[in-house]
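Milestone M4 deliverable, item 7.
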Amino acid sequence: MALKGEELQKISDVFDGHIDRIEKLIDLDYLDEAVILIVSVTEVLLRDTFRSSKELWFYHQPYVMIATLDNHDHMKTREKIKNYLDNIGIFDEYLKNYYVYERGSLDPETDSLDKTLFGGDIPRLSFQRLNERKGAKSAYKAFFDIELDKMLDSNVKKSQENWSSLIKLFKERHQVIHNGATSRFSKDKLHEIISILKHLRTSLLSTLISCYGLNPFWDETPKFFDPRYRVGIENSSGMQ
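Output delivered:
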């Protein structure tokens, strides 16, 4: 299994490769194509980061360098996840998967949840839908206590404005794909969106990796890691 630093670094590297190509498309005035790809790259970044950090869903894997949770804290965490799964209508499916994994898995909770969310033919979460009930914002809040709309700039108000811009871009992509519309985003605005996404990438991955700690399971500090973003989940959004 890849070391955690390597795994998240790969997500970051793939993101950078796609962003380089998108910036070239913008400069060549392929704006509709750029809008479509920006949404796809954002979706991949959010989905792959979410799943690659599944050890933190219940934050109790033995190698995670965070404070040990007592039984009361575990119960609060599990209740929060139960309520979320109930809200999107898949808690019964999770229980069925848990029955299967309970005897044969070292971590039946996480493996059952991963199977429930990502193992079926029907998507349970949509990381291309930012604000909806089964969308990225709700999922990150439920499983990591991370508020994505506060991760796009060091200033919270500006970050939330950037989040609104990102939502508009996602809606624009829908018009381009499904209605054959032409994007109304200018080259400068698309380059601004790219800068917003770069900030999201760094702040999100750095926040998550800080929860694993600088431990022997890393081969080296990931290149994306910026100490300015090493706020940790517990400081950035209230997780204990």
